[in-house]
């Protein structure tokens, strides 16, 4: 049995209510979630006021306490990516609301100065663009969510979406271009 098969079996057992499965699953899944979050953060050009570990901790707590009917490890990671997206969006909304109460904190980056407010605006704009894309094509929105918030590679997206890698690359290029145009507006 491969590690992936074992992971899928543990996820299904956990979804069926087996508390021992959750105990065995935690170290396996948690490390993978951290890797996905770190990968996603490396792809971001802006400052992050919420660290990947904090996002993963919050997502894992919410997932561990949820009653889930999991179909596969890809289904689990898609749910985790969606959870991380919600956490980032909620954080951005809270930061935007808090800006009325005081000055902005400036963060020093390699590329210069970048404010937490700008980061919040970008996360919210990306979320809005993804919601608009979902109205047009929910599969493309799911693909980008896996990529942006789940840190999935093109090969992992192809496997999760049950398409060829060339189809995943083509869809990813199209979806990124669509979101880029939406953000430029």
Helix content: over 70%
Q: How many alpha or pi helices?
A: 8
Low-confidence stretches: 102-115
Number of strands: 2
Cα(first) to Cα(last) distance is: 50 Å
Strand content bin? under 5%
Global geometry:
globular
Run of helices and strands:
HHHHEEHHHH
Quick structural overview:
The protein has 185 residues and is mainly alpha-helical.
Describe the structure.
The protein is mostly helical. The protein contains eight helices and two strands, in the order H-H-H-H-E-E-H-H-H-H. The chain has a two-stranded antiparallel sheet with strand order 1-2.
Q: Which short descriptors sum up this protein?
A:
185 residues; mainly alpha; two-stranded antiparallel sheet; 2 strands; 4% strand; globular
Secondary structure topology:
Elements: H1 3-15, H2 19-42, H3 52-64, H4 73-98, E1 106-109, E2 112-115, H5 116-136, H6 138-148, H7 154-161, H8 165-184
Antiparallel strand pairs: 1-2
Helix pairs in contact: 1-2, 2-3, 3-4, 4-5, 4-6, 5-6, 5-8, 6-8, 7-8
